[in-house]
């Protein structure tokens, strides 16, 4: 699988140097770029057209990578990584398992009804339906942002933007796992309260919990992806799914990430070129 080439966006992840060293160690060819330097129509400056290439970097550049003829290019299926898609399958396991999906305009129109449903005096969790991070998810007070103009200004989005709205929940810890189909590859603790912690997870109750969730759900957005798990009030929940190509590694095992990335990329390439 050394025929798999890697394109890495510069200065994005904390473990960039270690990741590049791992690519060298495993014998892979890689090149680096920056978002402002890359043009899909000039992709052959990096690797030939229709080549087997796998990208790691930001969501915005990932979108451009998917416009090339490279296979697979990037693992970041925008449709399947929308809340409105994967919540359908993971619903009962999600931290925000009681939610509304509606536009910002409808959120303001139905503000009182939604606040009453969540028994909230004003604060609600709001995130974009899209995984493309069009605004930063968080808790917002709809007694202050009580007009569409104020909410548009705060989120820098228009009234048609589809959002997920849920009640405010307290999160004590967060973990990230890289997953190949339904197989857990590697995981890391990355947040305790507000403190960043990079601690590799090897087996134990967290992997057992996630393995059981994956077994029961039996659906995945694409061959490679990430799942964030969180702890709230002493219980474990699925926090969100994310893109393999555009997710930070934290304390995850880089060797396993590279191995799985190359394996999946080559499988996809052979499926097209067999």
Structure description:
With 274 residues, the chain is of the alpha+beta class. Helix content is 29%, strand content 30%. It contains 8 helices and 13 strands. The protein has helices spanning 16-25, 59-65, 83-90, 104-109, 111-117, 148-155, 204-217, 254-273; strands at 5-9, 29-33, 52-56, 71-73, 99-103, 123-128, 138-141, 162-166, 173-180, 183-192, 195-201, 224-232, 235-243. The protein has a 5-stranded antiparallel sheet with strand order 11-10-9-12-13. The longest helix has 20 residues, at 254-273. It is globular and about 55 Å long.
Describe the SSE topology.
Elements: E1 5-9, H1 16-25, E2 29-33, E3 52-56, H2 59-65, E4 71-73, H3 83-90, E5 99-103, H4 104-109, H5 111-117, E6 123-128, E7 138-141, H6 148-155, E8 162-166, E9 173-180, E10 183-192, E11 195-201, H7 204-217, E12 224-232, E13 235-243, H8 254-273
């Amino acid at each position: 699988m050394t025929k798999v080439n890697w394109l890495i966006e510069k200065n994005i992840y904390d473990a960039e140097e270690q990741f590049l060293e791992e690519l060298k160690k495993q014998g892979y060819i890689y090149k680096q770029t920056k978002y402002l330097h890359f043009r899909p129509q000039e992709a052959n400056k990096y690797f030939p057209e229709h080549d087997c290439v796998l990208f790691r970097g930001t969501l915005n550049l990932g979108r451009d990578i998917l416009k090339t003829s490279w296979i697979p290019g990037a693992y970041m299926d925008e449709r399947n990584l929308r809340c409105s898609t994967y919540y359908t399958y993971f619903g009962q396991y999600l931290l925000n398992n009681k939610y509304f999906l509606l536009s910002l305009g409808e959120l303001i129109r139905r503000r009182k009804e939604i606040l009453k449903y969540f028994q909230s005096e004003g604060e609600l969790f709001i995130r974009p339906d899209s995984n493309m991070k069009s605004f930063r998810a968080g808790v917002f007070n709809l007694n202050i942002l009580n007009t569409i103009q104020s909410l548009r200004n705060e989120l820098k989005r228009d009234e048609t933007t589809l959002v997920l709205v849920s009640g405010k929940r307290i999160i004590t810890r967060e973990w990230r796992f890289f997953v190949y189909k339904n197989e857990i590859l590697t995981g890391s603790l990355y947040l305790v309260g507000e403190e960043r912690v990079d601690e590799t997870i090897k087996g134990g109750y967290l992997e057992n919990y996630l393995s059981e969730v994956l077994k029961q759900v039996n659906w995945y957005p694409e061959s490679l992806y990430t799942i964030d798990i969180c702890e709230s009030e002493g219980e474990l929940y699925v926090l969100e799914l994310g893109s393999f190509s555009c997710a930070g590694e934290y304390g995850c095992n880089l060797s396993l990430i590279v191995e799985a990335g190359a394996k999946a990329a080559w499988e996809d390439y052979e499926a097209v070129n067999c």
